[in-house]
Amino acid sequence: MQTPHSTTGYTPAASPSSAKAVIGMAADHAGVTLKAFLKAWLETQGYAVRDFGTYTANRVDYPDYARLLAEALLRGEVDIGISICGTGNGISMALNRYRGIRAALCWTPKIAQLARAHNNANTCSLPARFITTDTAQAVVEAFLATAFEGGRHQQRIEKTDALPFTPRGHRKIIRRIIAACRALVPGRHA
User: Fold this and answer.
1) Catalytic site includes residue 85
2) Which residues form the domain of 49?
3) Which of 24, 89, 173, 181 is such that its CA lies 20 to 30 A from the CA of 14?
4) Is 37 a domain residue?
C-alpha cells in the first residue's frame, strides 16, 4: 500500500517490482474481456487485484470507472492501476485529470517500461481493441517489473506536477476573450 505525498497525492510504499503490489483495475465495456483475462493472470502471479468494474459488455462511460480507480490510488488502497478502454486514450485522459495520477497509454512492452522508468507512471492504460491478450500480458508484465529511475527524470516529474490545473470556468472566459478579439479584427467575422 502507499501513503499520501504532499505534492502529488501518490507515493507507492514499494516499487511494484519488489513486494507484490496491490493492483487496481478498471475498464469500460470495450475493455471488460481483456480486464478479466489480465485479472485472472495477475492473480496466478500472486498479485492481489481490486476490480473497480465494469463487469459486463453493456455500454458504460469510462470516466465513471476511471474515477473509482483514481480515488483508490490516491487513498492508498492500491499501488498500481491498470485501465482499459477501446483505444486506451479515453480512460487515460480521465485518469490524468486527477493530480497525482500518471496514466500512460502503453501498447508495447518497451513503452510500458519507459513509462515506469522515465515517467513514474502509476497506471498502465491499454487499448483493448488494438492489442492481443498476449501483448497486453507482456505490456503489464513489463510495467510491473520496471522501477522508476529517478535522477534526471525526477525533475521532469516535479515540473509536471507543478503545472496548474485550469478550471473549466477559466476556459469559458478565455474563449470569450478570444471571440471578442477576433470580432475586433477588420474583415474577419467571429
Assistant:
1) yes
2) 2-149
3) 89
4) yes
Q: How confident is the model at residue 168 (pLDDT cuts 50, 70, 90)?
A: low
**112 backbone dihedrals φ, ψ, rounded to 5°:** -60, -45
36-53 tens-digit pLDDT: 999 999 999 999 999 999
CATH of the domain at 88: 3.40.1400.10
Is 153 tagged catalytic?
A: no
In this predicted model, what pLDDT tens digit does every residue of 109-144 receive, in sequence order?
999 999 999 999 999 999 999 999 999 999 999 999
For 182, other C-beta atoms within 10 Å of its C-beta total 11
Question: Which candidate in 5, 29, 118, 181 is catalytic?
Answer: 118
Single out the catalytic residue among 5, 29, 85, 106: 85
Q: Is 70 within a domain?
A: yes
Q: Which residue has the higher pLDDT, 85 or 151?
A: 85
